[in-house]
Amino acid sequence: MTAKNIWVFIEHTDGHIAEVSLELVGKARELADQVGTEVVGFLCGHNVEALAQDVIAHGADRVILAEHEELALYRTLPYARVAIEEIKKREPEIFLIGGTPNGRDFAPRVASAMRCGLTADCTDLQIGDYYVKKEDKTYKDLLFQIRPAFGGNLVATIVNPHTRPQMATVREGVMRKPAADAARKGVVEKITPTFDAKDLVLEVLSHQIRKSTINLKDAPVIVAGGAGVGTADEFALLRELANLLGGEVGASRAAVDSGLIEKVHQIGQTGTTVRPRLYVAAGISGAIQHRAGMDQSSKIIAINTDPNAPMFQIAHYRIVGDVGEVLPLIIKTLRERAMDQREAE
Amino acid sequence: MTDSRPINCVVLVKQVPDTHNVTGEVMSKDGTMNRGALPAIFNPEDLNALEMALEIKERTGGTVTVVTMGPPKAANILRDSLFRGADKVVLLTDRKFAGADTLATSYVLKCAVEKLGNYDLVLAGRQAIDGDTAQVGPQTAEKLGIPQITYAEQIIEITGDKITVQRALDHGSEIVRCTFPCLLTVVNTANTPRPANVRRQMERKLAAVPSEYAAIRTQWPDFESDEALDAYLTKHDLKIPVWSAEDIGATEGSIGLAGSPTQVHKVNFVVLESTESKTIPANAEGIAAMIAELVHEYIVG
Fold this sequence. Notes:
The structure holds two protein chains of two kinds. By secondary structure, chain A is of the alpha/beta class. Chain A has two domains: 6-200, HUPs (Rossmann fold), CATH 3.40.50; 221-344, 3-Layer(aba) Sandwich (Rossmann fold), CATH 3.40.50.1220. Helices cover 30% and strands 29% of the residues of chain A. Chain A has a seven-stranded parallel beta sheet, sandwiched between helices. A five-stranded parallel beta sheet of chain A has the order 15-14-16-17-18. Chain A has a three-stranded antiparallel beta sheet with strand order 8-9-10. Chain B has a single domain, classed as 3-Layer(aba) Sandwich (Rossmann fold), CATH 3.40.50.620. Chain B contains eight helices and 14 strands. In chain B, α3 crosses α4 (136-144). β13 of chain A pairs antiparallel with β10 of chain B, so a sheet runs across the interface.
């Protein structure tokens, strides 16, 4: 008998579980409760047993803990080998993986070996039934993998009726992280994998992760620039406005590709997903990949010279105009307000 | 830095719609996209992969072979590859390939790479801009049974049997060393792709697949028949090989729609509308009123 469990790949660095992994444990819990099955954390590493309880506290029923010194740092082949062996043995129904660099390296390798479907960068996951006309058969309780498609304005629901596990990656910040319940009980199953020389042909000579200096996810205000912000001077205006509002500077992919701003500022399906109180979209046309990363913002101000820019469709305030002229106006208004307040006090 | 035997590279490339340049004009009012308004281009990061392969060839010697799966018009990016410095190109085209998801695509690419044989490195762009999945590279590596190095940004060292590569991660980097053969996926910060070489372009401008012969003969009426053109191109090594599913020994159940486990259940054309929205005039009064409103709603402090 197979348990049809929902697995989550638990990523970690320096003894901390990646946010996205816990967000996915929360989503998996929701889905598992709908169909009455277990959530299983799949955790590989070296001396990481202490992390297992954290996975359980966020909603898992079980943690498969693969402990081995060769698993200390993420590497494709040893991690994939353990996963493939355990998947074959335990036959999970669903396997969710964070859309991090490592997650996006790991998931396709495993999916290829299992010859199963994999959908990248889902923005929503649901459980539903799917009717296949050719077979005149309804597949019950499939994973609906929902993602923007074809570079543009469509959202596709992808299903894998015939292969297992149903695999999907999801970017950090798309799902909400559940609150931890330290009292929650679960089972930790420790396994000791073995490796062959061919699993270990790749050596990591050095591994350096910088602490990110910007925190887009928690910023209450984000002032973001796109292709319509053409110069470094205009980007300086974004920074000035962000500072005035106590926020951070964000960017669309077009702006990052132009080299005016670093990749860590990128918002959207392939960047960070944000939900600030206020989002100022300056010169961002609003491709769906970008909107997917910010459309939950409480208030959106869009500034664009093109009155047909898609961003205007979701904006609360539409300003048709040049970024280089509108931003200084907003900055001036805010400064004057601040001065008036000081005089009044 | 380099003490190596010649390294043979196979570069996997894709022709994609230019989704980066989606503007208001490309989108219709109902939220659908006017695909005709998007030109077909060489997937940007595949150009970085080609450049990396050409740089490796300059260091170690060896060959650069470029492969694409796509419709006959994908021959455009193969010609472009020849102009930039590729030694050989192959077009994988077959109606049976249609509807492939990343798994079925990687299987076809694997069959083609194995048919080419004698390779040390397979390179591909990290991801294609029409899907952004970044899955085909790792899946092809798995099917070939070789290690993968994703997010390759710089080749640090190549020796006869090993390659050392710097990987670009979200907030940092990693240096790894791996045995040959292996597969690299290359990021756009790796290099600046060289443009087409003018001399190569002059020499190879007639390079073509057979389905293009009619168009070429309209332009060059000296070729009296397709056969005459074919003989000329073959003689001058300008005939772009076209391989079908059968040519690469691909199993029918593993290609195209049949070989694709993912199915599209439904597609929604989304037109997102904010619940309440206002157009603000781009002048001092308009902006002052907007800010007053945001202050009133405690959005701005």
